[in-house]
Amino acid sequence: MGGLAGAALGDATEDAMTPETRTYVIEHRVDSVTLDNVEVDTVVPETIQLQPIPDTQYQYVYVDDQPVIVEPQTRKIIHIVK
Q1: Would you say 21 and 81 are in contact if contact means Cβ atoms under 8 Å apart?
Q2: What is the pTM of this model?
Q3: Residue 8, SS3 per DSSP
């Protein structure tokens, strides 16, 4: 059973979670995937396609119907959009 827990704090999150980024990922919904025990620093498997966020270095995916921001080089979740 999947689930989301936690939220990121710190510079990376502040850089990734601008109001424009939040608006973009909410307005550009993609098909949701299910992952177990999802929280900040969870690595998103290579089998899951990430979507680019314009004008940022970050990407996103919807997990359990909630957008999460991912650092594409490490594929780690850096923020769960609430």
Answers
A1: no
A2: 0.82
A3: coil
